[in-house]
Structures are given as structure tokens and as C-alpha cells.
Amino acid sequence: MRVYPPPPEQPFTAHLVELRNRLLRVLAAVVVIFLILMPFANDLYTMLARPLLQVLPSGGTMIATEVISPFLIPFKFAFMVAVFIAMPVALHQAWSFIAPALFQRERRMMIPLLISSILLFYAGMAFAYFVVFPMVFGFMVGSAPAGVAVMTDISKYLDFVLIMFFAFGLSFEVPIATILVVWAGLVTPEQLTASRRYVIVGAFVLGMLLTPPDVISQTMMAIPMWLLFEIGVFFSRMFVPVKTEDAEAVGDQPGDPGAS
Length: 260
Known about the structure:
The protein is mainly alpha-helical. It has eleven helices and no strands. It is flat. It starts with 11 loop residues before the first helix and ends in an 11-residue tail after the last helix.
């Protein structure tokens, strides 16, 4: 059996230079995507505002309370869209930076986890836009007192939906977090299953903290988090850490040329 030696260690400054170069690549990707999206900034914001505009009473509109808001806010959203689109580039650069220090088995496991984390974050944002927003906005508009016209400022609306996007995107990462804590040996799938009742309570507490103070959005976050936790527990059984001697028996060494 052939055991590959670990790669030679680089000086700390070399790691800093590599990290800087990878961060610059991510920034360049964001800038390029943003420049492509700039001509469509107004259309993107109109699409973003659609869940609210569809539930406003006839003749209802959004307003801009600041002079520069009609110009600045669509470009701000276009930049955030560029950041979201560039997430795979950022994760790829992060993976390329840490991959040389991982064992071969760790590399094989990290690749599907990274891909899944991207897809789950996007799924969380899509869930917020297509499911949560129509229900929350419909409830808010319908509960307005008689004689009160609902006209949301475009800047406040953007801040609200971005917070919701991040909240639901991160909440959909629960399966990845569950798998990672099992993979790190901190808990076992059986221990997670036994703690299910506390997880459910914690999901509703997080839903209360991360979403607006209404029962609909809190419940719409808590229930998916619980279901995703169950999915994470199921798949975490594939990531239970092996014993050290088992890893050494298969020649699992950092920098293994056979690693993917």
C-alpha cells in the first residue's frame, strides 16, 4: 500500500496572498455580473415588488420618500442580485483555498455539501418569494384599518425583503449544519433524533427572531426548518466519522493526488 506524503507547508504570507487573490476573483465576478444587470435594474425591482403590488387595493402603489431613492434603490437591489448570483464563484474559491488541507475522504464529502448548500440557499429565497411573501403581504394589507392606505416606501420594502431572503436562505441550510455537526463528531444521528422536541421549539424561536412579528411568517419559517432538520438527520448517517485507524488504512492523507 502506498501512502502519499503531505504537501509541503507554505509560509503564512503565501496563504494570505492566495486568500487575497481569491477574494479579488470573487469581487471581480460580482462587479462583472452587476455591470451586466445594471440596464435591467428597474425591471428587477419591479419583479421584486410584484408580491406586494399584486395584493394592494386597486390604484395602490409604492412610494419613494427620498429624492434619490427612485434611482439608487433599483441599483442597490441589482448589486445584491449580483452577490447572490456570484455565490457559486465565492464557494468555489473557498473550496479551492481549503481543499489542499483536506483528506481524500473529506474532499469527496465536501463537494456535494457545497453544491447542496448553494441550492438550498437559493431554494430558501425562492420559498420566501413565491410562498411567504404573498401570504404575509396579503395578511398585512388585509389587516389595515379602514381608511388607511397601504403605500410602502421602496427603500423600506427592499430592506425588508433582503432580510427575509437571508433569513430563509440561511434557515434552509439546516440539513448542511446537521450533517456537519455529525461529521465533526459533536453529536450522533441518534442524539439528534432524541432532541427533536427541542429542535422544534428552537425552530419556532428562530422564526420569531428572524421574521416580522406575525404568526404567518414565523410558522412558514419554523415548519420548513423542522422538516429540513429531519432530512439532515437522515442523510447525516452517511457522514458518521470513521475511526482514525480506518482512515489511515486506506491511505487517507492530505494532498492525496488521487483526490478529486
